[in-house]
User: Which sequence fits this backbone?
């Protein structure tokens, strides 16, 4: 008769299909489309009182039980990607160019049913075609399937585990420079003189006193991740998210209500006079120099390949690997000259990490240390 009563239903939850639990209230609803026409599987469906967690509770997370398995899946997928490059003796550069993803049950289930439920993390628009993923149950944690990805992906540099571990474009760029180029962003021992008045009045970190020492380089490099959202792992396709949008510009300048996309990804509020010139622009474009605009659409793959060409990456890999195997940093002219030759050989041998390690452990330098 339309009346509602307190009670519960028995459900076999997706994270433990062999068990049965009691579910009540809004969570118990398994409606696919609400009477108001809302698709209950989509973002914002929780505003519709007729939408619940869906069949087997598929649209809801179960605290640390499911979150831990999803995050562990992302971490393991990254480890598999790295391990296969070494075990199959593929070029080290595949770490930054490979366009594949490894997915197991928790990962596939997440992208199919829960990517929109991760606030405050931003996982939509999803960087992967969920419809192309295998239909694995959530509890298939040990089943791994290799899935091809689109052209914007750049190996480990756009893997969810990397993007979620380093959640800002600046931290992603800094991590790459520190780990793969041996170039940490840090102030000199003598410190940096700062004009307090100038620092407060300049919003562009590339020009701000005290900040520009690092940010004059860091900002252009961080732009390579401009299409990958911060505080998440979503990808902003240029077709749907052009550099400038008229609706975002209009709402920013007229006081009209801005859409969620405008508020999340475009500059709609200026806190300083220089920022007003960028209203309506994708956040990645704010304060970008003309020469660096191409970085946003080139992506981190082109950045990584550039550091291969100029030899910074091979040299750093050699120094890091030799230091790890020797148990100390390289020192002295002879060892540094040896490292330079190793870097040349590393490149000529197709960036084989296994051959690099074999060369180091067979060297006289390694034998002396041992």
Assistant:
């Amino acid at each position: 008769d339309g009346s509602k009563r307190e009670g519960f239903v028995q459900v076999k939850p997706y994270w433990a299909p062999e068990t049965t639990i009691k579910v009540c209230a809004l969570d118990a609803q398994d409606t696919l489309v609400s009477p108001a026409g809302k698709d209950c599987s989509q973002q914002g469906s929780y505003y519709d009182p007729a939408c619940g967690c869906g069949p087997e509770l598929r649209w809801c997370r179960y605290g640390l039980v499911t979150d831990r398995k999803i995050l562990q899946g992302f971490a393991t997928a990254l480890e598999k990607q790295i391990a296969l490059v070494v075990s199959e003796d593929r070029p080290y550069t595949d770490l930054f160019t490979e366009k594949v993803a490894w997915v197991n049950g928790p990962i596939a289930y997440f992208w199919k049913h829960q990517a929109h439920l991760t606030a405050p993390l931003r996982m939509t628009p999803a960087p992967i075609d969920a419809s192309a993923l295998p239909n694995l149950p959530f509890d298939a944690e040990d089943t791994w399937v290799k899935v091809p990805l689109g052209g914007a992906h750049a190996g480990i540099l756009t893997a969810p585990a990397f993007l979620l571990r380093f959640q800002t474009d600046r931290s992603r760029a800094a991590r790459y420079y520190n780990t793969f180029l041996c170039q940490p962003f840090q102030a000199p021992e003598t410190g940096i003189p700062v004009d307090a008045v100038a620092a407060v009045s300049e919003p562009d970190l590339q020009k701000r006193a005290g900040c520009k020492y690092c940010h004059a380089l860091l900002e252009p490099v961080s732009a390579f991740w401009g299409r990958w959202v911060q505080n998440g792992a979503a990808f902003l396709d240029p077709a749907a998210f052009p550099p400038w949008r008229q609706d975002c510009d209009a709402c920013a300048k007229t006081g009209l209500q801005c859409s969620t996309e405008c508020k999340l990804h475009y500059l709609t509020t200026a806190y300083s006079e220089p920022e007003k010139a960028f209203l309506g622009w994708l956040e990645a474009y704010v304060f970008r120099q003309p020469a660096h605009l191409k970085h946003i659409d080139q992506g981190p793959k082109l950045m990584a390949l550039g550091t291969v060409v100029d030899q910074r990456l091979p040299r750093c890999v050699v120094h890091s690997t030799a230091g790890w195997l020797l148990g100390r940093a390289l020192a002295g002219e002879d060892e540094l000259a040896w490292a330079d030759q190793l870097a040349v050989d590393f490149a000529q041998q197709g960036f084989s990490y296994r051959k690099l390690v074999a060369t180091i452990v067979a060297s006289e330098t390694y034998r002396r240390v041992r």
